[in-house]
Design goal:
Elements lengths: L16 H4 L11 E2 L11 H13 L9 H15 L8 E4 L2 H12 L5 E4 L6 H7 L4 E4 L3 E3 L2 E3 L2 H10 L2 E7 L11 H13 L3 E5 L20 H4 L2 E5 L2 H4 L7 E4 L3 H14 L6 H13 L1 H21 L7 E3 L6 E5 L7 H11 L2 E2 L1 E2 L10 E5 L4 H16 L2
Parallel strand pairs: 1-13, 3-4, 3-7, 7-8, 8-9
Antiparallel strand pairs: 2-10, 5-6, 9-10, 11-12, 12-15, 14-15
Helix pairs in contact: 2-11, 3-11, 4-5, 4-10, 12-14
Length: 390
Amino acid sequence: MKYDFDKITDRKNTSCLKYDFAVERGRPASVLPLWVADMDIPTAPAVTDALKSRAEHGIFGYTMPKKDYFSVVAKWFKQRHGWNADPEKFICTPGVVFAICTLIKAVTKEGDGVICCQPVYYPFATSVTNNNRKLVVSELKLKDGRYYIDFEDFENKITANNVKAFILCSPHNPVGRVWEREEITRLGDICLKHGVFVISDEIHCDFTFKNHTHIVFSTVKKEFEEHCAICTAPSKSFNLAGLQISNIYIPSPEVRKKFEDELDRVGYWEPGVMGMTACAAAYQKGGEWFDCLKEYLAANLAFVRDYLKDIPHIKLIEPEGTYLLWLDCRALGLNDQALQALVEQKAKLWLDDGYIFGAGGSGFERLNIACPRSTLECALGRLKEAIKGN
């Protein structure tokens, strides 16, 4: 392979959340972390080169994106996903979670219901409750190793709880589903019928595995466009989370104005220059690197799938997208605290415990495979030995 994804990069002592905060987060100092969704793989060389060039300029003053920046963003999504996004309808924010919180405040009032399908990325819940909205949960259903939306429950929860917004995770983190067109259509039709605004978090959209295609929510039906926001960022695809850049697509002029008003209230106007520089370079010149990365991660997935054959009582929920694996550990017969102790104290691993993702997450663990294969092999070896001695 042209790029060396097997190279080990020492991330310790870089103020790295993943590696430098185990003790502060209540974990043993010796844990091997495969929890938070960033990669242990350096970004594309084109991004590093662009950042070096910008740094050499030496002036980092107030910065605003112009239309050519958003045109680069739109071109990436056109080429990769067939999405004809209007560059003028994007707004920069420092991250997708920030954007979700801002959208909640823009399209709902305090006390309104906001629905999501758990188990799901845990900041969704706090984004709702911290803004004094009512968290409404429609639990995903696991059948024959694949998760499905309970559409009847979803609609009933909307009508019973004054739901005004839905946070869609697409592809879904942590269960790895890439929603099919029929599923998205049915979700969108229900939301349209009941006046529910859709906040679609599509940050993992570039990561889909063979025979699965990501479908941008707003492209499914023309009617959906004015009733949704599409949250995108280069941070997962190119490992840029620390540069605080996301690009939020809001087709409705009315909602876009409300969103901008909320940005004014918190005093956020200009994105960081390095985030913009990295994003533009990634989307313009990083495509080949990213395609190679996807091949490597697909091989990592195959490695885990094969390795788990020798680890009793742990079942892989076959992922359709994302680089986050959802491991079914329920056959171990442990409660959440005992499972966490097994993973952290015996296996010396730091994973994301399933129960933090909400309803239906108990008995599961989330594993990040965006790392050199030797790191993955070490982690699985620790897990195997811990279970053998349990």
